[in-house]
Design goal:
Layout: H1 5-12, H2 15-26, E1 29-30, H3 31-35, H4 42-54, E2 58-63, E3 66-71, H5 73-102, H6 105-108
Antiparallel strand pairs: 1-3, 2-3
Helix pairs in contact: 1-4, 2-4
Protein name: Helix-turn-helix domain-containing protein
InterPro entries: ArsR-like_HTH (IPR011991), HTH_ArsR_DNA-bd_dom (IPR001845), WH-like_DNA-bd_sf (IPR036388), WH_DNA-bd_sf (IPR036390)
Pfam families: HTH_20
Length: about 110
């Protein structure tokens, strides 16, 4: 499954959504139970959960009148993989800059010495 990085990182940009995700990764919770934890309306919490679900970070399961929210660890790992790839690119670039500063032009051009 491909990570929609824009949606994932937009969802994670909000502190309340990060907190909700942390809670439901540990243990599934109903939207009602989550709403009692925050100084906002039930509808606002529901919207936060919808953003997380749209990003693929949580799933919702209907249990009677309740919707139980579960965190998706695999989706979070895929998002972490995107960050790991970006980190690798930047580390490669920093090594290239280090080589240039040291005057190692063969290494910075990608050629063997």
């Amino acid at each position: 499954m491909v990570v929609d990085a824009d949606r994932v990182f937009q969802a994670l940009a909000d502190a309340t959504r990060r907190d909700i995700l942390a809670r439901v990764l540990h243990e599934g919770q109903s939207v009602s139970a989550l709403a009692r934890l925050y100084p906002m309306s039930f509808a606002a919490v529901q919207k936060h959960v919808a953003v997380l679900a749209s990003a693929g970070l949580v799933t919702k399961e209907r249990r009677g009148r309740e919707q139980v929210v579960h965190g998706d660890v695999a989706a979070l790992r895929r998002a972490g993989g995107v960050l790991t790839e970006l980190e690798g690119l930047w580390r490669h670039r920093v090594r290239g800059i280090d080589d240039i500063i040291r005057g190692d032009s063969d290494a910075s051009a990608g050629r063997a010495p």
